[in-house]
Structure formats: C-alpha cells, structure tokens
Amino acid sequence: GGSSLTSSPYCHYEGFETVSKEKCFRDYSGAVGGNVVEGIFFLRRKGFTLAEILITLAIIGVVAALTIPTLVANYQEKQTVVKLKKMYSVLSQGFLYSVAEGDPITNYSKGSEYSTTAPDTGVDNFKELSKLFFERFKPYLKIAKECGNKNDNCIAVKYKSFDGSTSYTIFSETTSKYIIKLADGSSIVFFGYNFPDNVLGNYNPPGSKLYGTIYYDINGTDEPNTFGKDMFQFALITEGIAPYGRGENDYMENCYHEGFECAPWVISQNNMNYLHCKDLSENGKLECD
Known about the structure:
Number of strands: 10
Radius of gyration: 34 Å
Strand order of the largest sheet: 3-6-7-8-9-10
C-alpha cells in the first residue's frame, strides 16, 4: 500500500504552506522519486520574510521611543517624592531627639553674640553658626563626605529657578553654609541664622521665627540642578522642621516661578504634578486636567 507522487499531487495541512507532494518528498529525502507512504506528508512551515521582521522591529522601536521616556520620567518623579519625604522625616525626628536631649530650639542661634544684620554679612560668624546647626543633625544622617564651608564637589555651585529665568550662584568654593554629601548620593546644606526674633511675614505660620534653612539636592551634583525639580528647601522654625514655604497662601506661585517653595506641595500632595500643568493651587486646583 503506497501511492506514487503523481496519484496525489499536493500535500497540505492547516497553518502550513500548500506545496506539491514532490516538493514535500524532495525536501525530506533530497531526491525526487520513489513512493510516499499514504497518509504521511512531509511538510514545510511558511516563515516570516526579512521585510516583515524589519517592519515589526520598526514598530516596536517607535512604540518604545514614545513610551519609555514617559515611564522613566514618572519613575524619577516618584523617587524624588520618596527621597524628599524620607529626608523630611529624618530631619524632623532629629530635631525632636535633639530637643528631648536638652538642646532647645533657642540654642540654634547665637543671638546678639553675632552680627544682627542680614545672613550674607558677617561671613565668619555664619560659618560657625551653620556648623553648629549641622552638628545637631549629624548623628541622624548617613554621611559620605563632609565638605564643611568649602564646596569640594559636594553640591552644584549654580542652580536655576524653576521657570529657568534666573541662575543662582549659591554654593561657591567658600561659603558661609555647611555642606555635606550623603551616602545615597544626595547633598544637604545647613545655613544657620542669628536673627530668629525676626518674623518672616507669611512664609511660615504667624508668630513663627526662622532659625535656619536646609537645602536638599536629591541627586547631588547631577543635573538638572533646578529648584523644584531636584533642589528643595526646609526651614527650622519655632515648631520644628517645615517644608520651606509652609503656611504661605500662594506658595505655588513661588514654586512655579523661583521654585523655592515647591517642597510643601510634594510632601502634602505626594506628587510633582506641577511639572505637568501650570495652574495648581494649594487651596484650589489639586489635579492637572
């Protein structure tokens, strides 16, 4: 019981290419002729052409180019929120521990022993004051490098405003601020004030007094070096550590411009949506359209 090639000229199967039985046999045996056992077909599956493969790869590439940057940006934003909130917690706990150990907030200033003018004068006095400010938080920080009053690549020298309109030279080679680099690659700067009796208007709740400012760059010297994106500020006020700008009715107006007061939004709203729309408000619109 066999059948010749001529008695049944085709072989095929669902999902496979239909070819002559002679080709089935040739592909299998390497020679034409002989018999093919009835009911057994030697099949050849149809593959993709090079053009089809290249078109598929091109489509994948386009989709990746459109989606990956967005995914990366979303991930970076979430990481920024996590790191900022973690630092806020560390500083707040450090302050509370310091006070509990007998170091009241009044010790965060030297008062009349130092110049009572603006903090950018009397540099030597402020160097010491900033170091004393740092020493109170040192036990609670994982420090990789302590640059002190000399910026030895611990943090960027210049920072841009959030809207890009202004560039600030804040941390020059020698500064009255105290600079450290943390083990996770972020940087933190302490700036102690000597005029806590001055109430800073509506930057903080009425009656609050400012004892110092803490600058926090979540990725150290890396870009973008921009307030509200990777650089944020905390304030040491009467109540303790606060995101800089807390209590300001229109802190988002400053956030959108200078970027100094974006930290309250990030910490309270748990996002950085202000990067995606320009009309958010603390007491109004909280979500982008």
